[in-house]
Each structure stands twice: as C-alpha cells, then as structure tokens.
Design brief:
Layout lengths: L3 H13 L4 H4 L6 H8 L7 H10 L4 H11 L7 H10 L3 H17 L4 H17 L7 H13 L2 E2 L1 H10 L5 H12 L4 E2 L2 H21 L6 H11 L6 H18 L3 H16 L3 H18 L2
Parallel strand pairs: 1-2
Helix pairs in contact: 1-5, 6-7, 6-8, 7-8, 10-12, 11-12, 12-13, 12-14, 14-15, 15-16
Amino acid sequence: MVDKLIGKTYKSLRLLKKIEAKAVASEQLSYSQLLKFEQGKTSLTIEKLMYALTQIGSTLGDFEYLYYEQADYLPLQIGGAIFRTYWERNSSKLQKLVNELKDDLAKYPDDPRYFIYLVQAESFLAQVDKDFKISDAGILKIYDYLMGVSQWWMLECEILMNCASIFSDHQLRELVHKMINPGVQYRNPDALQSHINAALLSSIRVLIANKHFEPLREIFDYLDAHILPDYNMYERAMFAYFKVLYRFRKNPSKESLLAVESCIEAFKLLECFGLANLATEELERYKKESHI
C-alpha cells in the first residue's frame, strides 16, 4: 500500500523551494515518475527519494519534519500551546504538557517532532519552575543536533530560540557563533531572517543573565546589520532593551537603570504586556543582585 503522504510531503517541500517538477526530473527520476509519486500513485526507493531531495536542496531531516507535521496523529497545535502557556507563567499546565509529550514520545518514538517539542516544553518549564531540571542527555542530544546541521531552517531557529536557557555558556556561545557564521548555509535566507533574529534575541537574554558578555559584541554587530529600522518594531524594541539591559548588568548605575525602565514602559505602550512583565521580573532580580 502506497503512503500518499510521502509524495504529498515531497511536493510541499518542492513548492516551498519554488522549484518546478521538470527541474527535478532526470535520467535517474523521470518527470512522469515524479508526478505519480507526488500524486500518491506510486512510491520511490529510498535512493530515488534521497536523490529527489538533493535536487531541491533539502535533507531527509526536512522531509521527516514536514511529514510528521502533516500526519494525522501529530498535534499541530502543541507548539503554540507550549508557547502560550509559558507566557502565562503557568508551571502546572507546562508540567501537564511535558507529561503528555512524554507519553506521545513513547507511542511514536520514531517521530522527531515529539522529542523536539518535549525539550522545548521542558526548557520553558525550567524557566518558570526553578526546581525542574532537564536531563543532561536531553540537552546534549539537542546540542549535537544543532551543531550537526549544515543548513539552518525554521526548526533549528525555533529550537535555539526556545531552548537557549538550557545550554551551558560554552554550548550557547558555540551555537550562536554557528548561526551567524557566514559559512552556515540558510535555505531561503530572506524568509528565515526574522527567525534567526528571534533566536539571537533569546540567546542574548540568557547570556546577559549569566553575565557571559564576551559573545554579545558579535551578536550585537550581526543584529545591527540585520534588524531593519521601521520594518520590525518588535525586534527593534527588543534589541534596544537588551542593549540597555546589558549596560545595566555590566555596570549597574541609576542612569542605566532608568534606561531599562524606560524600555519597559515602551513595551507597555506597545501593549506588549507579557514582555513587559517578563522584563520587570528579570530587572528586579538584577537590582537585588546589584543592591540597587
């Protein structure tokens, strides 16, 4: 029996890359074979599937990610639910999501999405509940995955954005450097830029919290060049906030404190109340540490 979703998934990837089917066809894979495969009428050998993926600049990881995302049993809403629950600062609900994802992972151990969602949920839970700890094995698995990626896409950016706080200073520094290293290949870089920026902004928060300031100059220089003025006001506001927060964290003073508080007030004016609350929480912690 042919799994029609396999061909549908490949076609979705091809269209995402804006590549015509005729451009994929060759002696190894005829045009008619490709069309029948995409229509779910026939299957391809693993060798031909790998060839077809190479022709559109995709990997088997990309394919598996999208395949499971489209599968009926995958809870498509789970990513949004995790994120919303984090912003609610609801540790009980996050713990419930973690438990559900562990059960789902046990049912579908070959589905990489469940592990990825689980680690992200655990990362958020660890930020809300300081008594919750993520296993070293889980952290290392995610770190190794990101370090092994040759082409970054939204999935990798999402993982780094949501899981930055679980990595050691050394691991986070290496991941950030890899992300903004010109040698890294991005698929559809224009569409990806906002996701890269979001991951870096999340990493800045962690580096500032840990007083690991050395990598920040590289990140600041990158974001100065890639966050366009008046294009994404949220990114620009966050970046401005982290710059003044960095100055306060490095050299606490009444002047730098006032600058941070002004940014928080700006968040409120923009009706980013969840962000304002989060910024207020971290500022209060830093004020206590600095005895201000």
